[in-house]
Amino acid sequence: MSGTVLVAITGASGSVYGLRLCEELLKAGKRVVVTASNAGIGVVREETNLDLSGSEEESAPRLRELFGASPEQLAFYGADNLFAPPASGSAAPDAMVVAPCSMGTLARVAAGLSSTLLERCADVMLKEGRPLVIVPRETPLSAIHLENMLKLARLGVRVVPAMPAFYHRPRTMDDLVDFVVGKVLDTLGVPHELFTRWGGRQGPGTGD
């Protein structure tokens, strides 16, 4: 997969998944567009000390500084900016990942709501038939959560739960995060070397 990937961060715990994904996509030469729900901005600040509050003009440079990215490589749009390019099918990104995906966002996407930029972008991906990946981060899961995931899966959305494996013998928290991010990259067809695959092979691939 080439081109632009939109990474959306919601208010579920696990904002590190979205940020680590941005880092790897930039490393792979992708253009990255980031948006976050208002709750997501709060969780990012709580979990990582990264402040994405304020105007886009204030937040975007902080995010670019974190990754050492240029404006051409990385764009940031606020939750209420429904005039941002990704909100239109004519400027839709090549793929979108919601990482982490809260159950509230999951429900609103499944219902086809478009009250925020994140929801509108997800709706655009569905209507344009472009790859949409969600990384749900919740436990335990209720029947409503499962039904919403099933509904989206039947529409072609890839569901990649934040469920790290242990066969690669993780030693650090980063190893656990990298496994989940690696599975998302596999789903997007982006080569990576974030974990050792089953059988001891490390490097590009799309299977366990």
CATH class: Alpha Beta
CATH fold naming: Rossmann fold
Radius of gyration: 16 Å
Structural class: alpha/beta
Helix content: 40-55%
Strand content of the residues, in percent?
Answer: 5-15%
Per DSSP, the total helix count is 7
Approximate shape? globular
Pfam families: Flavoprotein
EC number: 2.5.1.129
Keywords: Flavoprotein, FMN, Prenyltransferase, Transferase
Binding site for dimethylallyl phosphate: 167, 183
Short summary:
Pfam families: Flavoprotein. This protein is of the alpha/beta class.
3D architecture notes:
Helix content is 40%, strand content 14%. Helix 1 (15-27) crosses helix 7 and helix 4 (103-110) crosses helix 6 (143-154). The protein is α/β, with parallel strands linked by helices and 208 residues long. It has a single domain (4-188), classed as 3-Layer(aba) Sandwich (Rossmann fold), CATH 3.40.50.1950.
Descriptive tags:
7 helices, prenyltransferase, Flavoprotein, 208 residues, Rossmann fold, six-stranded parallel sheet, carboxy-lyase activity
Write the topology of this structure.
Elements: E1 4-9, H1 15-27, E2 31-36, H2 38-48, H3 56-67, E3 74-77, E4 95-101, H4 103-110, H5 117-128, E5 132-136, H6 143-154, E6 158-159, H7 173-188
Parallel strand pairs: 1-2, 1-4, 2-3, 4-5, 5-6
Helix pairs in contact: 1-7, 4-6
